From TrEMBL:
Protein name per UniProt: SDR family NAD(P)-dependent oxidoreductase
Keyword ATP-binding in annotation: no
Record has Oxidoreductase as a keyword: yes
InterPro entries, alphabetized: NAD(P)-bd_dom_sf (IPR036291), SDR_fam (IPR002347)
Entry keywords, A to Z: Oxidoreductase
Family per record: Belongs to the short-chain dehydrogenases/reductases (SDR) family.
Organismal lineage: Bacteria, Bacillati, Actinomycetota, Actinomycetes, Streptosporangiales
Organism expressing this protein natively: Nonomuraea diastatica
Alphabetized PANTHER family for the sequence: 5-KETO-D-GLUCONATE 5-REDUCTASE, ALCOHOL DEHYDROGENASE, PUTATIVE (AFU_ORTHOLOGUE AFUA_3G03445)-RELATED
GO MF assignments: oxidoreductase activity
Coiled-coil annotated residue ranges, if any: none
Domain of life: Bacteria
Length: 228
């Protein structure tokens, strides 16, 4: 397998940023696994991508789902942890319902953690891999955590910490693990944003296909490393 023909799995890939990332990876010649909670939506998205794409039903909150996907699709070289939710917009930190915080952590942090535990060991064993966490400026101390969406913000801070831990664990193995802040992107979460998913996908796919001397454990924005 050449560097131009990798197997890439994208979570939350049936729409928005995940769909745009899948399209870009497929256009570059990679074999894309379109993963989404709804099997029918994943299937439609994969069919629209065309030959070389396949679908997988994946709920990242299901403890056993990542292993089932691994058994279905086999070795994966690139994982883009894109699946994410925001449920607490407008709730102040002192008043946000903790069940909303818990649900966001379950998807945004533990979902990515499960994916890493299942797919990273194989990458290390094969000596090549790329993992990209889709983070947010609201989770960066350098940018300022957002009190308007506190649970989401703290979950993305935790995702950044997970990025560093996984990068440290795999450093020197040929695996690179980084987080990308795509900025505000026009999705169902941010319908009024000016930046299009296709624009964000360019930066994310760049991080997913870094050369072997690329950064690991980094927070990236616009293809540049920025402070956590």
């Amino acid at each position: 397998m050449t560097a131009k023909s990798r197997i890439a799995l994208v979570t939350g890939a049936n729409r928005g940023i995940g769909r745009a990332v899948s399209e870009r990876l497929h256009a570059l010649g990679h074999r894309v696994v379109v993963a989404a909670r709804d099997a029918a939506e994943a299937g439609r998205a994969a069919a629209e991508l065309g030959p070389g794409a396949r679908a997988a039903a994946l709920d990242v909150t299901d403890e056993e789902a990542p292993e089932r996907v691994r058994d279905l699709v086999g070795p994966v070289d690139i994982v883009v942890n894109n699946a994410g939710i925001q449920l607490d917009w407008g709730h102040p930190p002192l008043g946000v319902p903790t069940q909303l915080v818990r649900r966001q952590f379950e998807v945004n942090v533990l979902g990515a953690w499960r994916m890493c535990q299942v797919f990273l060991p194989g990458m290390v064993e094969r000596g090549w891999g790329r993992v990209v966490m889709i983070s947010s400026g609201t989770g960066a101390f350098s940018n300022g955590l957002s009190a308007r969406t506190p649970g989401y913000s703290v979950s993305k801070t935790a995702l950044n910490a997970l990025t560093v831990l996984m990068a440290t664990e795999t450093r020197g193995t040929g695996v690179l693990v980084n987080a990308v802040n795509p900025g505000q992107v026009r999705t169902r979460m941010r319908p009024q944003a000016e930046r299009l998913p296709e624009q964000a996908a360019e930066d994310i796919v760049w991080a997913a296909t870094l050369p072997d001397d690329g950064p690991t454990g980094a927070f990236l924005r616009g293809r540049k490393q920025v402070p956590w």
